[in-house]
């Protein structure tokens, strides 16, 4: 792969909207990605392997629980800092960002928000340091966009809950030490349970042959009469709103992360267009390629402003789920379109692993589907503005 020459675009001086702390956190993540992710990621993606050696570095830049209070091992940062860290990591690779998002928003967040003090103390510091890695089991083979239909269930039996069912498409599953699993009790109400690797009847087979997020490990969670101690239930919130609260946090991170992938594609295409000579002049001097590049920077700038404003609203505790849906949908769509256009600017070179664009493009095919598909987020906006549900 080519050396990482990335220069972040900031067409509207959005840096002026950031605090010194935001910029410090962002710059630390940016240089770590340049040093530790860029040189190795292509090889790991080609091999379809998660680079486990970067776990400690992810922890060190605050990517595991950026907004979790320091007393539980988190970085104690605000939402904009969290977003900026996700942006920088996804600038390197969406699969690496997925690992960090799952750990922070889908594992640490529910334990912090819905867990007991004993659960927080037991799990959060180890998750923040990367000693424990977690995964989040919501999607099932027959219930993706409609997780409320899940059939994974548990029944009380003495000191335990006995868990049965299966989850599919679970990021981090193959190597996770623990899983936050969403399952129905005997009355059909959804609860979160912490299931630990090693519990009898719990297996995590890996999903192979992905063309997307190849540097992120994905798998199934199978529960065959798993005896989960009662103290592993998250008591603070039940019902579908509990996992959806976690998804709000993760989707917010994706809205920022997608900007990173888009910036990397744009920056690569811009540099290439200025250097690549055809018909005795740089292709960047042609109107057609300038149209592509000008539209890219316009869309990136709009996405940056959307994410920044959403970050302010989240820091003020005012962001709605529907606002988060809009940003996730818009920014991922923006990024995937930019990846496709950038790929074309590089001509044949665009399909090779010499450049990051094709990897970003393939990764974004998952990002546009997981954490609520492109369609589902549109329906959420539609429901929000009309007051009418088009889901069923
Ligand atoms: C790489 C990867 C990693 C993932 N990681 C995780 C994870 O860590 N944990 C987890 O729990 N899940 C995870 N997922 C699952 C992901 O969230 C689901 O794939 C997603 O929610 C969509 O579900 P589905 O694939 O079953 O598609 P479906 O729900 O079957 O949807 C298929 C199509 O139908 C459309 N559709 C569905 N309902 C409607 C409707 N009412 N109206 C109009 N159109 C509709 C959808 O938009 C989509 O285009 C991951 C997925 C991938 C690909």
UniProtKB/TrEMBL annotation:
<dbReference type="InterPro" id="IPR006089">
    <property type="entry name" value="Acyl-CoA_DH_CS"/>
</dbReference>
<comment type="pathway">
    <text>Amino-acid metabolism; tryptophan metabolism.</text>
</comment>
<dbReference type="InterPro" id="IPR009100">
    <property type="entry name" value="AcylCoA_DH/oxidase_NM_dom_sf"/>
</dbReference>
<keyword id="KW-0809">Transit peptide</keyword>
<dbReference type="InterPro" id="IPR036250">
    <property type="entry name" value="AcylCo_DH-like_C"/>
</dbReference>
<dbReference type="GO" id="GO:0046949">
    <property type="term" value="P:fatty-acyl-CoA biosynthetic process"/>
</dbReference>
<comment type="similarity">
    <text>Belongs to the acyl-CoA dehydrogenase family.</text>
</comment>
<dbReference type="GO" id="GO:0004361">
    <property type="term" value="F:glutaryl-CoA dehydrogenase activity"/>
</dbReference>
<dbReference type="GO" id="GO:0033539">
    <property type="term" value="P:fatty acid beta-oxidation using acyl-CoA dehydrogenase"/>
</dbReference>
<dbReference type="GO" id="GO:0000062">
    <property type="term" value="F:fatty-acyl-CoA binding"/>
</dbReference>
<dbReference type="Pfam" id="PF02771">
    <property type="entry name" value="Acyl-CoA_dh_N"/>
</dbReference>
<dbReference type="Pfam" id="PF02770">
    <property type="entry name" value="Acyl-CoA_dh_M"/>
</dbReference>
<keyword id="KW-0274">FAD</keyword>
<feature type="domain" description="Acyl-CoA dehydrogenase/oxidase C-terminal">
    <location>
        <begin position="238"/>
        <end position="383"/>
    </location>
</feature>
<feature type="domain" description="Acyl-CoA oxidase/dehydrogenase middle">
    <location>
        <begin position="135"/>
        <end position="226"/>
    </location>
</feature>
<dbReference type="InterPro" id="IPR037069">
    <property type="entry name" value="AcylCoA_DH/ox_N_sf"/>
</dbReference>
<comment type="pathway">
    <text>Amino-acid metabolism; lysine degradation.</text>
</comment>
<dbReference type="InterPro" id="IPR013786">
    <property type="entry name" value="AcylCoA_DH/ox_N"/>
</dbReference>
<keyword id="KW-0560">Oxidoreductase</keyword>
<dbReference type="InterPro" id="IPR052033">
    <property type="entry name" value="Glutaryl-CoA_DH_mitochondrial"/>
</dbReference>
<dbReference type="InterPro" id="IPR006091">
    <property type="entry name" value="Acyl-CoA_Oxase/DH_mid-dom"/>
</dbReference>
<dbReference type="InterPro" id="IPR009075">
    <property type="entry name" value="AcylCo_DH/oxidase_C"/>
</dbReference>
<feature type="domain" description="Acyl-CoA dehydrogenase/oxidase N-terminal">
    <location>
        <begin position="19"/>
        <end position="131"/>
    </location>
</feature>
<dbReference type="Pfam" id="PF00441">
    <property type="entry name" value="Acyl-CoA_dh_1"/>
</dbReference>
<keyword id="KW-0285">Flavoprotein</keyword>
<protein>
    <recommendedName>
        <fullName>glutaryl-CoA dehydrogenase (ETF)</fullName>
        <ecNumber>1.3.8.6</ecNumber>
    </recommendedName>
</protein>
<dbReference type="InterPro" id="IPR046373">
    <property type="entry name" value="Acyl-CoA_Oxase/DH_mid-dom_sf"/>
</dbReference>
<dbReference type="GO" id="GO:0050660">
    <property type="term" value="F:flavin adenine dinucleotide binding"/>
</dbReference>
């Amino acid at each position: 792969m080519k050396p990482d020459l990335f220069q972040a675009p900031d067409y509207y001086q959005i840096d002026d909207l950031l605090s010194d702390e935001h910029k410090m956190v962002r710059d630390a993540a940016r240089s770590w990605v340049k040093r530790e992710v860029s040189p190795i990621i292509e090889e790991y993606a080609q091999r379809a392997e998660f680079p486990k050696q970067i776990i400690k570095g992810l922890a060190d830049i605050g990517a595991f629980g950026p907004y979790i209070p320091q007393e539980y091992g988190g970085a104690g940062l605000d939402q904009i800092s969290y977003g900026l860290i996700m942006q920088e990591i996804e600038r390197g690779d969406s699969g690496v960002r997925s690992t960090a998002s799952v750990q922070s928003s889908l594992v640490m967040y529910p334990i912090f928000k819905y867990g007991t003090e004993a659960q927080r103390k037991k799990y959060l510091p180890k998750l923040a340091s990367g000693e424990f890695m977690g995964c989040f089991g919501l999607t099932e083979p027959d219930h993706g966009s409609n997780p409320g239909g899940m059939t994974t269930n548990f029944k009380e039996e003495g000191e335990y809950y006995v868990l049965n069912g299966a989850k599919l498409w679970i990021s981090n599953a193959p190597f996770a030490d623990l899983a936050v699993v969403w399952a129905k009790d005997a009355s059909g109400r959804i609860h979160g349970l912490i299931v630990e690797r090693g519990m009898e009847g719990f297996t995590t087979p890996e999903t192979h042959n992905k063309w997307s997020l190849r540097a992120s490990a994905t798998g199934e969670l199978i529960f065959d009469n798993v005896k989960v101690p009662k103290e592993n239930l998250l008591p603070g919130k039940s019902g579908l709103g509990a996992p959806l609260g976690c998804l709000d946090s993760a989707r917010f991170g994706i809205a920022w992360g997608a900007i990173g992938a888009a910036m990397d594609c744009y920056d690569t295409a811009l540099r290439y267009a200025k250097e690549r000579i055809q018909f005795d002049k740089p292709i960047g001097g042609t109107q057609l390629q300038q149209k592509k590049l000008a539209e890219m920077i316009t869309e990136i700038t709009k996405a940056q402003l959307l994410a920044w404003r959403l970050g302010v609203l989240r820091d003020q505790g005012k962001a709605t789920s529907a606002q988060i849906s809009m940003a996730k949908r818009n920014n991922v769509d923006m990024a995937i379109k930019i990846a496709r256009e950038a790929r074309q600017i590089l001509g044949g070179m665009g399909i090779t692993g010499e450049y990051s664009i094709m990897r970003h493009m393939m990764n974004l095919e998952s990002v546009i589907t997981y954490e609520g598909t492109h369609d589902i987020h549109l329906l959420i906006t539609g429901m929000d503005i009309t007051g009418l549900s088009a889901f069923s």
